[in-house]
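Q: Study each token:
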Amino acid sequence: QARCPSATWNWRSRGVVFIAAQLLRLGALLSELMNQTEVAAWTYHISSKAYSWNASRTFCQKYYTDLVAIQNKDEIAYLNDVIPYYSHYYWIGIRKINNKWTWVGTNKTLTEEAENWADHEPNNKKNNQDCVEIYIKSPSAPGRWNDEPCWRKKRPLCYTASCQDTSCSQQGECVETIGNYTCSCHPGFYGPECEYVRECGGLEPPPRVLMDCSHPLGSFSFNSRCSFHCAEGYTLDGPRELECLASGTWTNKPPQCVAILCPPLKPPERGRMSCLHGAEGPPHQASCSFACEEGSVLVGPELVRCTSSGAWTASAPVCEVGRVRQVSKVENPPHMSQLCSSPAACAYDSTCKFKADRLSIEGPAHLLHWPSQPEVQAQAIACQPPERPAHGSVDCSPSSRAWPYNATCRFRCAEGFELHGADTVRCTDTGQWTAPAPLCQALQCQDLPAPNHARVKCVHPFGTSRYQSACSFACAEGFLLVGARELRCLATGTWSAEPPECQAVTCTPLRSPQNGTMACVGPLGDSSYQSTCRFTCNEGFSLSGPERLDCTPSGRWTGSPPTCEATRCPELFAPEWGSLDCSDTRGEFNVGSTCHFSCRGGFKLQGSSSVQCTASGRWTAPPPTCQGAAPAPTAEVRCPALVAPGQGAMSCQHPLAAFGLNSTCHFRCKAGFQLRGEAAVRCGRSGRWTAATPACRAVPCSELHTEEPVLMNCSSPWGHFSYGATCTFHCPEGQSLNGSAAAACGPDGQWSAATPTCQAEPLTVQEALTYVGGAVASTTGLVMGGTLLALLRRRCRRKDDGKDPLNPHSHLGTYGVFTNAAFDPSP
């Protein structure tokens, strides 16, 4: 509590109901802290205590980022202008390391161009002056540096970096600038936040080329990889894999698939050859048949085929000629008949033909010139065993271990495979099957398109996109998967589901601030991931809050929407011995307010008699004075004593006496409260204050509205729907809550969460974990682990915006926020 003033509670005066309300609010703040990533400008912070250089750096690293690292002369001039004067000055993040002046935050040596030493510095004075201070508002050397002994005590000048974990989309290096940052993108990425990925363009594979791609960063984008292979009977000519480079070009051109050819065959001598090539099939299915001229015998296979490996099933046959010799008459073999050209005398060129009915002839069926009795026999015709296809079966009739003439065999494929070839074959009288054995190929599913912003990982056991192929999908950061996470190629040749999509995460829609405008750019859709909204205010109003908000991958904006507050000029007071009359009767001194000055009798006005508040928040002229002989002050004048308003504070100056003549009191409210009345009053000669004591009222939030059947229960300790109010939501039995279960009205007048809705079908455990991620386990661990207060202290440090109205040393500037830390324990 002592280290987080904005979270101070009055436990004793509110009772059990108030404690319960604050616990709900605490839970909402914790939820916001866990799920929100804020991006703020580079801010500066100073301590109200002085430490040695080492202790100062420990302090800065504990509560902020580090001791300040000054980048240019403009920054030095700004620091010198807004930081309050302190006689012993401030430590900055430079120290002598290995006898070289070094920026400790980056461990880089100080360059000569960046030096800003005062005259005749550094001089060391033989006193180990190894640390550096900055002269703030020094009369002789404002903003210059001086070397000092590190043990001396000075106030630390700290900074909080504007770069966050999500800056530059985690695809570039975040470079700090004054009040902002720039992104130096990694190769392959571009854009103001490095949010875009270089694209190489889609690939169109040539005919018969099969392609399998993975897209980790987007369809055909940087780091996409595509591998290639060919269908059976073809070989790859070119690179086997292509990669999309950071330059947006592919590493090479896609390859070609070239047909695998068998070596050419020549017809045998004294013979002829006839080859067939499939009109549509691959070249390896070509076949050649051979025959010999009359008088020659074929030695070798009659038919050879070209296989997918580029080799013939056998060597080409040859034709051999029979020898010329007088031979005796051949006897008729059993079960066969013969017919000879010269039955009486078996002379030269005599021929005998043998015939067997449905029997095979063992021996030459057509004899030319036999030297002796040939052995010609008749046996039953049979075929070789049929080949069973892989992933299939064969059923023959008659069923036996032999496959005689006219036997038939039928082929079938297993589930998920289809038959390519003849499903039925018959054994012919030549001992050959009517067709070769068929093949069983896995059913082909359609090629899956790779969704945009998705990564696809596939396994193909039987070929690309064929039966039992499985593909899993995952979306890139900032996108949600809509559809099935895994698809399988079924036995029907179709995928198990439609391909999923990656849809950009959406943030809550924003509205233009009152008295201002909003311009948004959403490359992936309105209020979606990578959307950027910029805010501007109308003339006479200034922006309170971030100028730009980005929709992060978590579906949250990088901060709360800003507001446009009326530009005001500094408060004016009537000159001594004079009066002030302003057109703005409420004393808010808004743009356009006009004030007139006048002096009492005997006094003359020195300066402009009329001033006007301009759009820049400055008066057109400084306040005038009344010159003349002033009477002696009357110290006896007294005004009633004032007390600070509830939830506020008061500071008074008494030039003559306590609550006496010309005593001036200023009022301010705590965070979450706003002043109603005059911000300053002065005690006049009549013994009366110039205005009544103001009051502090809780900052109002917009009224919450819910849609049926959502039930809402609210607690408002300081007013209906105002700062400190907490509302809880729940749904009727059988419905689940879609959104935050609680919302708290914050000090900026904004609710910590939007009102939820009820959905009929509750999320399953798996879906809930997918949406929330590890946040459920993390929240439980934090609360049960007793680290809740430590996390709140961290929140105070990270979200300190330097606007504590109770801190008199807070400074707001163009480049950042300067805060005198309200908590200051020794490091």
Remarks:
- The domain at 202-260+443-504 is CATH 2.10.70.10 (Complement Module; domain 1).
- The mean pLDDT is 78.
- The helical segments are 11-35, 53-63, 73-82, 765-772, 775-784, 788-799.
- The radius of gyration is 47 Å.
